[in-house]
Design a protein that fits this description.
Layout: H1 57-60, E1 74-78, H2 79-89, E2 93-94, H3 96-101, E3 110-114, E4 124-127, E5 129-130, H4 132-140, E6 144-147
Parallel strand pairs: 1-3, 2-4, 3-5, 4-6
């Protein structure tokens, strides 16, 4: 096999159907678009959510609620997760980077430590926020809490 006799596999290349090229082609006339109506015209595009003139869903359903643009979203990490991470990696100080490396937190997420679970180790924890219960539990175990 040389470069001059390369060709595609049989059946892999299919010629496209030439539409609207006269009656002899078999797909002339209306060119597969049916008769009349907006859908047969060139440049037609249906509005998003259009339901054929019926009142669309986004107008039938009432509006409610609002999105607070000042909301700060935290990824919640419980004390028991800190405990297991500290045991597994033999850590005395846990930072947000340690949680990212362990796969508990995504790259840009803010971290809040919550007080669910028991903490037996003395840990120095660095996070974006702490709940009161978590802060008390960490200090009771002899550790420290630092907010970034």
């Amino acid at each position: 096999m040389e470069l001059h006799n390369l060709q595609p596999a049989v059946g892999s290349n299919k010629e496209r159907k030439r539409i609207g090229r006269g009656p002899g082609s078999g797909s002339g006339g209306t060119a597969g678009r049916g008769h009349k109506g907006a859908k047969s015209r060139s440049g037609y595009s249906r509005k998003i959510g259009f339901e054929g003139g019926q009142m669309p869903l986004q107008r039938r359903v009432p509006k409610f609620g609002f999105n607070n643009i000042n909301r700060v979203e935290y990824k919640a990490i419980n004390l028991d997760a800190l405990e297991t991470l500290a045991e597994a990696k033999n850590l005395e100080k846990i930072t947000v980077e340690d949680l990212r490396d362990a796969g508990l937190v995504s790259k840009k997420a803010l971290v809040k430590i919550l007080g669910n679970g028991k903490l037996t180790r003395k840990l120095d924890v660095v996070a974006d926020a702490f709940s009161k219960k978590a802060e008390e539990a960490i200090k009771a175990a002899g550790g420290t809490t630092t907010t970034k």
